[in-house]
Structure formats: C-alpha cells, structure tokens
Amino acid sequence: METLSPHNILVMLLSLGVLLAAARILGELAQRFRQPAVLGELLAGVLLGPTILGSLAPELNLFLFPLTGPNAIALDTIATLAIILFLMVAGIEVDLSTIWKQGNKGFKVGLTSIFLPFAMGFAFAWFFPGFMGKQAHASPLIFALFLAIGISISALPIIAKTLMDMDLYRSDLGMVVVSAAIFNDLVGWMIFAMILGLIGGNSTHGMPVIITIAMTLTFTAMMLTLGRQAIHKALPFVQAYTKWPGGELSFAIILALLGAALCEWIGIHAMFGAFLVGAALGDSAHLRERTRFTIDHFVSYIFAPVFFASIGLKVNFILNFDFKLVFTITGLAIICKVSSAFFGARWGKMPLREAWAVGFSMVSVGAMGIIVGLLAMDAGIIEEKLFVALVIMAMTTSMISGPMIRIILRYRQNLSVADMLASRYFIHRLEATSPREAIGEMLESPCRTMGLEKNLIEAAVWERELSLSTGIGKGLALPHARIEGLKQAVIVVGISKNGIDFDAPDDKLAHVIFLILTPLSDAGAQLAIASEIAGIFRNETMLEKSLHIKNFTDFMALLRTAPRGWSH
Amino acid sequence: METLSPHNILVMLLSLGVLLAAARILGELAQRFRQPAVLGELLAGVLLGPTILGSLAPELNLFLFPLTGPNAIALDTIATLAIILFLMVAGIEVDLSTIWKQGNKGFKVGLTSIFLPFAMGFAFAWFFPGFMGKQAHASPLIFALFLAIGISISALPIIAKTLMDMDLYRSDLGMVVVSAAIFNDLVGWMIFAMILGLIGGNSTHGMPVIITIAMTLTFTAMMLTLGRQAIHKALPFVQAYTKWPGGELSFAIILALLGAALCEWIGIHAMFGAFLVGAALGDSAHLRERTRFTIDHFVSYIFAPVFFASIGLKVNFILNFDFKLVFTITGLAIICKVSSAFFGARWGKMPLREAWAVGFSMVSVGAMGIIVGLLAMDAGIIEEKLFVALVIMAMTTSMISGPMIRIILRYRQNLSVADMLASRYFIHRLEATSPREAIGEMLESPCRTMGLEKNLIEAAVWERELSLSTGIGKGLALPHARIEGLKQAVIVVGISKNGIDFDAPDDKLAHVIFLILTPLSDAGAQLAIASEIAGIFRNETMLEKSLHIKNFTDFMALLRTAPRGWSH
C-alpha cells in the first residue's frame, strides 16, 4: 500500500503548520484593520508560495510545497476536504426560510449576475482573442466560452466568508446575495460542464451534459425538500440512540462527505453537495447548538484558513504578470459583475444603496474563477499569463468586495468592550476609597493622553452619578457620561481589592469599575456598552476571577473568553 | 501543480464517508456491548478492507481503497493527521501532576514492559527464525531485533482509547499505565531507530542514532518544563489579542502540528510531538474548556475512527493467515507483555489485582506493532505471513485488553439514566390524576413484562411515598422503591399534561414522573439515578421541552443532549 514516507510526513506537518500559522496571523491582522479575515488568509499563501518565498528562497518554497509527488497530493487532499467542510458550514448557516422570502430577489440577481457578464466576457474574448491570451491553436469559440464563464462565475465560499466576517450573512441582504450566489454557482457549473462536454466529455465520466444538468436540479430539489425532512426526522434517532455528542457530529460530517461525493459523481463540484447537506441540516430545529459550534469553530479556524491560503500557493504572481491583461480582465470583471448584480437587485426592487451593496457582494470571483482558469490552462486553451490575470482578478474582486460594502452601507463593525480597552486605561489596583476619588483616579490617564479638561469631565461623570448611582450590584459599577467633542467611546477599567460603595441595590461594594465616556453625538453607545458589560458579569465567577488577575492581558483574556449571559 | 483529479476527489470523499460511517456505527455497537469503541472501529476496516469486501467484491474494494496512486496517498494523509491529532487529545487529557505522582510506578512498569518482552522475543526469533517467518536472506540478528521490538512496543493511542472508553484514563491506575506507555513508547522508538540505523541509516535523514536519542530526551524534557511554562504564559496573550474562540483553537493545533513535525525530523514518530504538545497545553489552567471540547469532540468522533478503521484496510487477514504462527506470536506477546507489566507493577508495590489490570492495560501492541511490521516487511526482513501474524497479534492484544481489565477490576460501566430507559416503560400521556393512580398505571408494563407481583411492588412504592413525598419540585416527581429479587434498576417514565399533585415543596404539579425500582442489594443505585435526573432537570427549559415531545425517541434525544447542571 502506497503511503507517505517519513520525509513526506515531515513536510506535510511542517507545511500545514506554517501555512495555518501564517493564515491565522494574517487573518487576525486583517480583522484588526477591519478587513475580512479571508484577505489575510489569501495573502498568507501569496507570501509562502512561489510569488514571494519562491523568489527569495526557492529551495525552501519547494521543500515546503513541492509541485508534484505525495506532498502535493497530501496538501490538495487537505485543501479539498477543507473547502468541502467550509461549504458545509456555509450551508448550515443558511437560513432557508429567509432564502424563500428573498428568493425572488435572489433569483433575479443570480440570473443577471451570470448572463450579463457571460455575454460581455464572451464578446471581449471573441473579438480580441490574441490580446486576451488565447493559445494559438485553441478554438476561438471554446476560448471565448471559457473566458466568459471565468468572469461570470461567483465564489460562493468567499462571498459567504466576507458576509460572515461582517456579520451580514444572516441579514436579509446577506440572504439575497447568498441565494443569488447559489443560483449563479449552480447555473455556472452547469454551463461549465457543458463547455467541458464540448471539448471532449465530462471530466469525471462520460455522462451526457443534459443528464448532469437534470441530476443537479433533481439533487438540489430533493435535498431541499425530502432530504431536509428526512434529516429532520433522523436527528432525534441519532441523538437518542448514539453517544452524545459524538453521534450527531459524525452523522453531520458523514452526510456532508457523501453528499459531496454524490455531486462530484454527478459532475458538478463536490462542494455543492456539502453545501446542500449543510443547508438541510441547519434548517432542522433538532440540530443542537453544540454540534453547530463544534463544526463551525473547527472548520472556520482550522480548515478554512488552510484552504484560502492554499490558493495563493498555486502560482507566481510576479513572473506571469501582464499589467495590461490584468487591468483589462479585472476591470471587465468588476464592471460586468457589479453592474449586472446591481441591475438584478434593482429589478428586484431593492433600494439604490442596497442594490450597490448587492453588486459589490457578488463581485467576488475567488476560487471558482481560479478553478475554471486551472482547468482551462490544463486543457491548453489559455496561456499562463491569462491564468495569472484570472487569479489576480479573482483575488482583487474578492478584496474590494468587503471594503466597498462597508463604504456603501456606511457599515461600522460593532466593537466589543474588549476591543475598546487599552492597557493605559487599566488600573490594576485602584487606591480610591470613595466613588468621587475613584472617578478622579480613573480619569487621570485618558484626560492626560487625549488632552481633555479633566475638571469638566469629572464634573459631568459626577453629576450623572449623583442623579442616579451607577453601582449596578454584584460588585460592578459603571460610572459614565456623554462628552461633547469626544471622537469615540473610551472605557477606563479600575479594580478595587477593598471595594468602593457605589450605592448598589444589593448593598455590595463595587470591585470592578468601568468608567465609560461616550461621544455626545452617539446616543446609543453608552447603553450598548453597559449592557454588554452587565451580560459578561452576569456569570458570577467573573467578579471573583477579575480580582485574581495579574495584569491587563489576563483581564482581556478573561473578558474575551467569558461565557456571555445570553449565549450558550 | 499535481492535484487530485475529479475521479480522485470522488473516491476520496466516498471512501472517507463510508469508512467513517462504518467505523462510527460499529464503534457505537461495540459500546452497546460494553466493549471499547476502538474495537468496532478496527473491525470496520477489516470489513471494508481486503479481508472481507476485498474477497466478496474485489473491484469495489479497490475502487474505494486503491493501493497505489493519489487516493492511497490521500487516505494516508488523513490517517496520519488523524493519529497525530488523536495523540494530541490524549496528551491534553494527561494529568501531569498525577503522572509525577505515579511516576515511580510508571517508570518501573515501563522499564519491565519493554525489556522483558524484548529479551523473550529476541530469544524466540534467534532460535526459531524459520518457523517465525524470517526471509531467507535477511540477517538473523536484524530479524531477531525486529521481532523483539515488534513484541515489546506498546500502542499508546489504543491504550489511551481503551482507558478513555472505560473512564479509567484519569484515574491513578490509568496514569500509571499512561506514564508507563509513554516511557515504553519513547524507549521503544529509540531502540527502533537504532535498529533502522543498523540496516542503513535512519529513514528521515542520515542522523546518527545517538543524536536522535539525545534530541528525543531533550525535546521531551523541554516540552514538559520550559515548553509547558511558555504555553501557560502565552495562552492569556492569545486569548486577549485574537478573536475568541478561534485564536486559542488555532494556537493549539498549530503547536501540535509543529511539535509533530519536529519529532518526525528528530527521527521518532510525529505522534510523540503532538502528544507532548497536548500534555503541555492540557496542563495549563488557562486552556479554556470550550477549546478542549471542540478539539476533543472533532478528533474523537471524526479523526480517530478514520485512523483506527484505516488500520484494518492494510492487509488481507485470511489469505496470509498461518494459524501456528499467529498463535505463537500472539501467545508469546500476551504472556510476555502481561507478565512483564505485572512484575513491574508489583515491583512498584501495587496491589495484586491492580497489578494484573496494569498487565492487561499494557498488553495492547496495536498500531505501533503494525508500523514496525510494515517497515520490516518493506525492508525485506520478514515475510507477509509474519506481518499478518503481527497485525493479528496487535489487534488481539488490543481486543482482550478492555474486557480483561473489566473482569479483573470487576468494573461496571456506569449506566446513564438514558441507557436504562425503554420505550415499553414510557407512557407519553399518563391518564392518572393522583399519585396513587399514577404509580399503578406506571407499574402496569414492567410488572407484566418481568412477571412481578404488582400488588406488592405498588405497596412498596406507595409506602415510600407516604413516608416522604417524592415530588421534588419544578414539575418533577421521583417515586421509588427498593425491590427484593430485582436484577437491575428499572425506570418507568410517565408524562402528565395536566400534572399530578405529588406534594412538592414548591407546590407545583408534577408533569414528568420517573418511577425508579432498584434492587434491594444495590444500596447506592436509587440515589445515583435520582441525582442524575435532578441534575438534568435543573435546566428549566427541560420540563417545557418534555411536555412538547412527540414520542419516546424525542424524549431520549432530549435526555441525551441535555446540558447537565454541573458541566458547561
């Protein structure tokens, strides 16, 4: 039996560890700069792939990521499983009832987003084949069809990830986009299967294209009706007669694997099977939260980053860079895709601003475009420079999507309390013994740093305190004020070993004091912050733990990992 | 870049789905018969591998599990990752403080369990090389060394899984065995590295054996001291400055992958690196429960079953079966390993019964023996029939381990309440309106089925009810009695829509009634059952949900997946 040699195992573990580490670190950094994590993850692959590491240290690059042999297969195996499991999670997150509700809009956006770019891409490739990088001996028709599909297909996983990263996935807008992307993808893959049929048969086995299409439609319809009901009925049996939580977890993963296998057999990409299984699973009220979380976390933070990073490994982006081609393809794709989805959304009677947001949500070509490009290159239809242009187009469209949506929707990521803390606004041992003293002590550092008039602010906080004491009980006090001219909310934390009497309803002394300053213009900020803090400290061990922390980092760690009062 | 073809992807997904499904179903069945799940998982591989499926439908077997090519590599990649992550979980579960406490005994057991079987195996192979399956041209010394190490090495993962399946892993006995197995494995792999050195260099790279040994010792010592402290210090930073729970999860997995890579580079098996990283991680009080659970569940119920099933795929057990050889090797291994670990435990002053339990815990040769055998076969030192005998010996030793420990320790798996329920003792709509009527109605079915005298039992339950009413509040009542001659506890469940007045302290009517009959001889059973039920129903949504279930299966599903009052 052919197995990995010790050297293969070494390379596999090292490359996986390094790839995951780079993807997660850059993903976290991207989020720090309010970008979707997927951007950082893609960039990790570009850094470790032929483009950067391959230029600086080609031997190390080929040692970690050999192009052929067992290690290439091993990495592709992991990436393939990763994308399938990621699509399963995307499916579980889909809210089918919202999709039905948004189905009409989603259908219209899906329809325009595939056919308009297809027509425009076809026209360009047909009239300028040489400039667009056609191989001399390739058929102009096939070439034009390939380019057209490469531009019109959408990247469901990247679209889903971008929306998830912005907490828009389950919104109405998100569900219009997701249902459009599902439609786009299904139709796109069917057209793609037809084109592959034209150049000599489907890649899996010699099934006529019409049968592939019929089976795809049948499978989709079945999974969303009978399959959905069967899963809903089966879940209580699995829960009742297997060991919890293992039975339900295995059941979900096994279904996803088999659904993916079925779609691969039908001739469309395996990931759709996993997506549909996920959608059917997630729709059942019987699926337990714990199973959802276990799969979601393991997949989102381990498998997905590996997959997205692995995309960047596939090509040298500098060597095969043709500026004019990249510019043309990227511009063409952005204009075609944004405008067509925009028209679809307007056709669906969406407001102007939302229609633009839909346009920029559908712009991501992502991995789909790369897969189409790869197959076209393998089939000798396009040159390497066009492949690189397709990849850069796919990445660029994925990169502009998030920021553009953010600008259009004037979207502000909800900062959590932990995001607003800073070590310089943290007093580990408050010396104050009265509320008045505590407020003065805690205002010291922010007023100095930001050049604020301390007396005025202290007066404002104290006035509020006198009108309504802010000791909310359970050892917590939240003195606060709205301050004119403040740009953004400031939170100062003070911890008092002995406790300070903030006149709480339960008569307990306050040990953890959050002093909250919010801009006068932002009416809701104070309440949002206060209720998040109260939620965190509803868990009674939190106060005890706060008194035992050693430094600011410990306190941050405690807040971030606290079980929230309202979640599981 | 070499990638999986659509056909490869289809086979990979299908084989993985089928393998996982078979492993999990047989694993659940094994547990139903009070055997460790790992037995069923191993058997799944034997069924789907060359032995059974390969004989009945060889084409299907080779379609699913080809011996060469990308799919063989893909499956081996997944199995390799699986064993590494499983060892990481085993490491997280290790309680280092207990290991230090049990270290002396563990050291003695480890020492005898490796050297005595080694000496005996060597002697046998040296004096009867032909009978034992030596290749004609292989050196007698090398052959004897290989067989000796094949018999003396222990399977840390199977030992850990067997102990975990019986909830013995974190007991004192479990920790003696685990520390002995760690010692055995580390020394075993070092000896193995030396033997490989004798026949032409270490398999990874040409590192002298002495350096491998020195590095192994250094790495082990470092991980358990400096590495442990570094991880403990790093965890709050990861929690404080990355997105929860993703940062901590990725951090743990990345460390395990890199630790595994380092051990593979040193020249011992990658899994030890993951094990040691896991031990260091699990030792930190900063590692959050949620991360522990996410990793544990995904690995134990997805990765580990795939690994253990994949072992059974490797060989045809019937074709290469030589009864005398199998019998000799297996007998030799069992006698050598059990007696040597027994002597070690007695040397460590353990009581007789525990010493035998240690002996049978250390008997598992498992995957380690198979890996040694594979390498020996690849190096042309042993014949196929000896390889098969080694595999059967490895499996047999793994199979007898659990049952023998159970017999020796007179171990009874603690049945959960859900395990004791049966649909015939479940009344979905109680008609009774008083406690007396309810008890009568609920005793109907068990008395009929078991041929008990209903009047007597009803009188016993009612007498108990009169002396102390069993309505415990929150809509729950637990009438009960200890019955002479009853073989095992019986629980009858009745659900009353309208509620019955069991005179609860909170004056609420009882809607869910558990009637509990326990044997007169089993004094603790009643209290254990009652407190488990009370724990489950401490969560206030449970009563509400119980009133909305549709049938027995729904009720079972509810009980099994209920958040327990005392766990997270």
TrEMBL record, chains A, B:
Keyword Cell wall biogenesis/degradation: no
GO-annotated biological processes: proton transmembrane transport
Pfam families cross-referenced by the UniProt entry: Na_H_Exchanger (PF00999), PTS_EIIA_2 (PF00359)
Cellular compartments annotated: Membrane
UniProt keyword Transmembrane helix, yes or no: yes
Transmembrane segments: 6-26, 38-57, 77-97, 109-128, 140-160, 172-199, 205-226, 246-262, 268-286, 298-319, 325-343, 355-375, 387-409
Keywords for the protein's UniProt record, in alphabetical order: Ion transport, Membrane, Transmembrane, Transmembrane helix, Transport
CDD domains (alphabetical): PTS_IIA_fru
A GO cellular component annotation in the UniProt record: membrane
Any one GO molecular function term: antiporter activity
Annotated ranges, domain PTS EIIA type-2: 419-562
Bilayer disposition of the protein: Multi-pass membrane protein
PANTHER family: CATION/H + ANTIPORTER, K(+)_H(+) ANTIPORTER 1
Protein's name in the database: Cation:proton antiporter
Species per Swiss-Prot/TrEMBL record: Desulfobotulus mexicanus
